[in-house]
Amino acid sequence: xxxxxxxxxxxxxxxxxxxxxxxxxxxxxxxxxxxxxxxxxxxxxxxxxxxxxxxxxxxxxxxxxxxxxxxxxxxxxxxxxxxxxxxxxxxxxxxxxxxxxxxxxxxxxxxxxxxxxxxxxxxxxxxxxxxxxxxxxxxxxxxxxxxxxxxxxxxxxxxxxxxx
Length: 164
Hints:
By secondary structure, the chain is mostly helical. Helix content is 80%, strand content 0%. It starts with 6 loop residues before the first helix and ends with a helix.
């Protein structure tokens, strides 16, 4: 984890970690199930912390697009549904696994790209450095709480998808 608590930098760091985990899940030379477990925890913790702490705060700033923030929440739900579909596949590396993995990768990479171009650039341009640092600290605290609560467990993900 980087030294900075700038919320934009911390979120970007998580995004790069997710991309690396997606690469590991695609590789026959990796423990794909272990990579999925790690990915599931990070995706859920990251998304829940963004929605609880970051998105509401960003909506208060002029020139941070509220519609993009709300769209980001919708994309989190789509990613969570795709994650659950992959987690429910019994055999890592099967044809079904590969199909569900690509659906997940498509949903997540689309969201990461869009969030980086819209929400995070808006935050860089319109949110003061001190406030971004505060949000980064709060985001990390919330994310780490979700991680400690085993948010990547399939039952947790099922309940999250069911109630979203």
